[in-house]
Write a structure and sequence with these properties.
The structure is a single chain. By secondary structure, the chain is mainly alpha-helical. It has a single domain, classed as Methane Monooxygenase Hydroxylase, Chain G, domain 1. It is 82% helix and 0% strand. It contains eight helices and no strands. Helix 6 (124-146) runs antiparallel to helix 7.
């Protein structure tokens, strides 16, 4: 079956509805910024630089709110656009997937804000490595979205494969982190604190999962035959 260029790729290439393209890329950048700042916040937290960590966590919330604002504006423009319905639906689905990624980063930041540094000190380096791999997933995805018209079919497949491989590394990071937690005596902890640490870890893993889900969606959309 011959390859048929998907309408969404044609849309990016044609530069129709420039404002929608601009907002889509702005949204992608804001989403990635939430993950980048989360990595900074965790490093500051592990260094017990709590004042700076608090500022960074607040910044993450502001960035996520800005991403939400862009998403709402984009959805409004899509509803009024003369673009074919399939393109509007694909863009709306793409933005929704990206929004989930930003929500995960902000959710992790909020959990971090209510934990004392000594609670996660034994796993600080593991958390940093864990989040670094999740951020790499988000970075590859962001670059794909910022340069869609320069990405050929073969290149797109390779970039999506990179995200799949990196997400697998995140899964392994997650497993090793869980193993380490089982080896540490946390019997003195309030159960609600343990739940907060658990939720923090789950949010970090979900960053990579959301990036992979979005990449898989792009693969279906751009490479439909």
């Amino acid at each position: 079956m011959s390859f048929i260029m998907n309408e969404l790729m044609d849309f990016f290439a044609s530069r129709k509805e420039d404002q929608i393209i601009k907002l889509t890329r702005q949204h992608a950048m804001k989403v990635y910024d939430t993950v980048l700042e989360l990595e900074t916040a965790i490093k500051q937290f592990c260094d017990e630089n709590l004042n700076e960590a608090k500022k960074t966590i607040s910044k993450i919330n502001d960035i996520e709110n800005e991403a939400d604002r862009i998403r709402r504006e984009l959805m409004l423009k899509l509803s009024k656009s003369l673009l074919p319905s399939n393109i509007r639906e694909n863009l709306a689905h793409l933005v929704k997937n990206l929004d989930r990624l930003a929500n995960c980063a902000n959710g992790a930041a909020r959990r971090l804000s209510i934990i004392e540094p000594d609670i996660i000190k034994p796993i600080c380096m593991d958390l940093i490595a864990f989040l670094s791999d999740s951020r790499e997933c988000a970075l590859i995805l962001k670059n794909m979205l910022l340069n869609p018209i320069s990405v050929k079919k073969e290149k797109l497949i390779k970039e999506i494969q990179k995200i799949n491989e990196k997400e697998h590394e995140v899964d392994m990071d997650h497993l090793e982190l869980r193993k380490k937690l089982h080896s540490i005596d946390f019997s003195h902890l309030n159960p609600f604190i343990a739940i907060t640490v658990h939720t923090l870890i789950e949010f970090i893993e979900s960053i990579a999962d959301s990036a992979e889900d979005t990449a898989d969606f792009l693969k279906i959309v751009f490479l439909r035959e």
